[in-house]
Amino acid sequence: MKQIKYLIVAFTTTLVMNTTNAQTPQKPIAKNPWTLVYDGAITENIKGKVNIHPVSYKIKDITIAANIYTPANYDATKKYPAVVIAHPNGGVKEQTAGLYAQRLAEQGYITITADAAYQGGSGGTPRNVDKPENRMEDIHAMADFITQYAGVDISKIALLGICGGGGYSLGAAKSDKRFKAVATLSMFNSGLVRRNGFLNSQIATIQERLKQASDARTQEAAGGEVLYIGGDAKPLTDEQIAKIPFEFYREGYIYYAKTYPHPNSSGKYTTSSLMDLMTWDATGNLDLINQPLLMIAGSKAQTLYMTLEAFPKATNAKSKELFLIDGATHIETYWKPEYVSQAVNKLASFYQTNL
Phi/psi of residue 295, each to 5°? Predict the structure, then answer.
């Protein structure tokens, strides 16, 4: 039971695949030169095709690890539209963010996705700090970098945020008008869930958890041990997975721990991060978004309520559209080919119209 409770916390911001596929073999990252773990990932750069380019840059004194994807027959002397892609909470650039970056590059876009500061392959200590201000700055910094990249038309930059990255993309787009079109996929409002619990399951413990976060920060300031919510746990059996509360968490465990795992991906975050997370909300001041807005979600996603809450609050969006992928759960939009294709096609049409 203790492990099940751990999973509820550890995967509050990540998720993924169908429990009937629990025995699906892991993606062999050792065979991929860029440790990409999504289906159909690039295994070599071939002239005339979509290529991947690992890059790094700084946010203050923190080194950020990123991947840029260039379209087929890329010519640095020409101009291309670009898409900045923010990854899910707990995820890394080699998972679903990379999948969407590659697929959009196939549509003719230069794309960039980066590991958040303090997470994945990026620098920053303590590890796995997860604060909204940092995540939004990650998005601004990706825009900074891509505007300097050869071939990018800086008047045609778009944004895509997936899961928690979707909530943070809404936050970043409120002020960053370099993004001419804004889209979210399976948007997850990290502040709302950290505050109230998934599906409002932890409202009764808000003050208790804020106290724990405050005490954890005091301990950090004194040089003590950094405390985490979530963390490493023993692998679960199929029987234990089946008992995980909420489909969202069951699928999330399978995606991140069994079928598309990456050593840099972690569901844990510092306890002190809750001080920032619980007082933030992706839907605050959404009237500041005046760009065209597209919000995509699965019709069967348990997280759909977050998209439905946010969408009407974007009252000043130049245009806006809610696109539901029929039959898809939250995590299935990360990997399932027919759902990914629907999302990519919709995104490409949206960007083409609005850039």
Answer: -120, 120
